[in-house]
Amino acid sequence: MQTLSGQKKITINQSDKSKSIEAFYQNGRLLQTNSFVRGHNSFHESIDDFQAFSLRLKWHTNSSKLWEQVYNNPEYGIGFFMGNFDHSPELGNPIAVYGFFSSPIFKTNNFSINYDAGFGLTFNWESFELGQNANNIAIGAEQSVYIDLGLKLKYQLSENWSIGAGVSFTHFSNGALKKPNMGINTLAPKLLLSYDIIRNQKNIINDKIPPFQPKNNLSVSSYFGLKNVLYEGNDVDTTVANKGVYYPIYGLSNVIERQLTYKSKIGLGMTFGYFGAANSILTAKNGKLIKNNASLKDGFEISIFPSYELLVCKVSLVIQPGLYIYRRKYENQTPRFYQRIGLKYNFWSKYFVGINLHAYNFYVSDYIEWHIGCCF
């Protein structure tokens, strides 16, 4: 880890960092991104309204590390989320556990503007099921991913109390691990109240952050995923049809990157992949589903993409909009232009693992990629 010039030597343990409890309430709207929320449900009404409550435990960084200074002493922690929708009998009342990161864009002694990012797992959905909840094409499983992005204004009322307001976009999806999975998307304002249970102002003082020296690298990773396909016939049990089958997805991704700052990398990449569901025929025999994976020739794909990576300590947010430049035609083919967004964790200096959501039309999940790779 690069050190800082002019650094005052103060030993700070994790227990020395300030800790807060924060609660926020939201009341907003569902984005009408699929037919289920637009009214194709048992109530024959659009699902418009959404409200939620969240409780967070957060730690305040204190400039003891370079990345903390680069991000202007951000906050991070864990949160518990409870949501409620119109027509909850068909959707359920989701509960999420998530980690979050919040960094100031602008701040004074008592006021700050911050951006928030949260990522976790959601439970307690009433998911799609043939014969019982067949209208719910939005959520295909009882579990999903929770992704939350937002902005907030925060004001320090007193030594320990803060209030604030903001807005956030929240996406619920299982990454198409279980179909159908059109997802739930919400946009909602929020009000928050925060209390510092441990307040410590012991910060390391630095003359300045050292200039960053740009550098180049080649990132190479292999990935694996699964594509869920449901059976549309009526000659098998509904449980079997609802489960469907899983086709393999795997490949190799290569990115030539240049790290411009402590925070950002840009690059250009190419993926060579295999899509097992291409031109595959799903049939049934004796109550069981029979799949035939695509041949290597039929399933082979090549795509190119620009890449952006936001670096926060050892964790990175990866954004890669891509374009297929070669693949064979097959039925129900997704658009040539796709979007990949994910998280990457760096370890042992040059190795990393990651998880990416592969989507199209900017909101429809196609499948999840699990990556392991190395930087040269």
Care to describe what's here?
With 376 residues, the protein is mainly beta. It is built from five helices and 18 strands. It has an eight-stranded antiparallel barrel with strand order 1-2-3-4-5-6-7-8. An eight-stranded antiparallel barrel has the order 9-10-11-14-15-16-17-18. It has a two-stranded antiparallel ribbon with strand order 12-13. The N terminus is likely disordered.
Question: What's the N-to-C terminus distance?
Answer: 18 Å
Structural class: mainly beta
Helix content: under 10%
Name the shape in a single word: flat
What is the level-2 CATH architecture name of the largest domain?
Answer: Beta Barrel
Here the CATH topology of the largest domain equals Porin
The total tally of domains equals 2
Q: Averaged pLDDT, please?
A: 87
Number of strands: 18
Strand content: over 45%
Question: Radius of gyration in whole Å, from Cα?
Answer: 23 Å
SSE ordering = EHEHEHEEEEEEHEEEEHEEEEE
Extract low-pLDDT stretches: 1-15
Instruction: Report the CATH C-level class of the largest domain.
Output: Mainly Beta
Put simply, the count of helices is: 5
Protein name: Acyloxyacyl hydrolase
Organism: Carboxylicivirga linearis
Keywords: Hydrolase
GO molecular function: hydrolase activity
Key terms:
single chain; 376 residues; mainly beta; Porin; 8-stranded antiparallel β-barrel; 5 helices; 18 strands; disordered N terminus; hydrolase activity; hydrolase; Acyloxyacyl hydrolase; Lipid-A_deacylase-rel
